[in-house]
Amino acid sequence: MARCGMREAFLLPARCLALPGYGRRPRLSLWAVPFLLLLSPLAANACPEICRCSSGRVDCREHRLRFAPGGLPANATTILLDYNRIAVLQEGTFMAQSALRQLSLQGNALVSVHRQALAGLGQLEELDLSGNYLTLLLPGTFAPVPNLKTLHLGNNRLLRLPPELVGALPRLQVLSVQGNALTSLGPGFFESLPSLGHLRLDGNPWVCSCAIQPLSRWLVDNMDKVPAVESVFCKRPAALAHHPIAAIGNESFALCQKPWLHPRDYAFFLLIGPSTFLTSICLCILAGLLAVARARVTATTYARPGALASICLCILAGLLAVARARVTATTYARPGALARRAERHQH
Q1: What is the pLDDT of residue 186?
Q2: Do 88 and 116 contact (CB within 8 A), yes or no?
């Protein structure tokens, strides 16, 4: 048998364990088989050189990494990649770590998370993506982690948090979205999180319009679940700036529940156009007949050209009146326009 060190025997077993001979394929000695079987678990659970590994915990923090390191132990239950320079989580990044329970990428430079980046992490319970540059998370991003209980998304740049994004997390208990760019939470958001017991919302530019009503109602009923609930306040409009959302009464949303105009009002405005048109035609015909009668009385001409011109002008005036009536009806039929007119009238 060739003489090799331990490292060579592990990396090149066929070469180091070959029996001498002429023209024969190299063979492994029988005693080497159990030796290699003992080494295989060590290779599967090897720790990347840049990280520290102990009892399933892999610590790769603060190493200026631009990508998740390769060769992470397959039996890892905790992976810490905080304060590196990772910008993208690619598809299947942690596919081999199926036993992972905690994953932290706090304080990186993340701008994109592939919708299958968490594939294979069915046992994951805690995920920290806070302190990055995320503006959007694609629907389905959290579908591979249905057992997630804690999700930290604070201090990013998220513009939206649609219900379908978190709808795949029925066991989620802790959600942190403070310090983002959220202006509202869509209808059905809280219904998709039946287990939610802790929610951080402060530090977002909330717009207190009708769209904020679901959040306002939930805050009133669940103040004990929101730390510093008084810090969750309106950013716009200016009249409500720094007004706590939980302090907005239900009466403030009364106009959000009913249309600005009754259906019969819409019918009235729709009838203005045809009615005005018919009235204009009748008036023009009457004016033309009067002009013709006057021409006959004066015996100037049987059919004075001026009478025909008068009829044409009257019809044109009628058409213009109809167009103006339709524009007016459309404008008044829009609730937003009516509201703006009412506000200008009050001022």
Answers
A1: 83
A2: no
Give me 341's structure tokens.
């007119």
Residue 194 lies in a domain: yes
Residue 316 and residue 309: Cα distance in Å, rounded? 11
List Cβ<8 Å contacts ≥24 apart for 52-58: 56/99
Chain mean position to CA 41? 42
Tell me, yes or no, whether 75 and 177 share the same domain: yes
Q: Considering its fold, how many domains does the chain have in total?
A: 3
Same domain as 181, residue 106: yes
For the chain of 347 residues, list the mean pLDDT of each consecutive stretch of 10.
44 42 44 44 73 96 95 96 98 96 98 97 98 96 97 98 92 98 92 95 95 92 93 93 90 70 58 73 78 67 57 71 60 46 47
Inter-CA distances, 306 with 187, 237, 300, Å: 65, 59, 12
Q: Quick one: 291 and 314 in the same domain?
A: yes
Asked if residue 298 and residue 193 are part of one domain, the reply reads: no
Quick one: pLDDT at residue 266?
Answer: 56
Instruction: Report the pLDDT value the prediction gives residue 300, as an integer from 0 to 100.
Output: 53
Domain coverage including residue 311: 263-346
| CB neighbourhood size of 98 (10 A) | 14
Q: What is the CATH number of the domain that holds 97?
A: 3.80.10.10
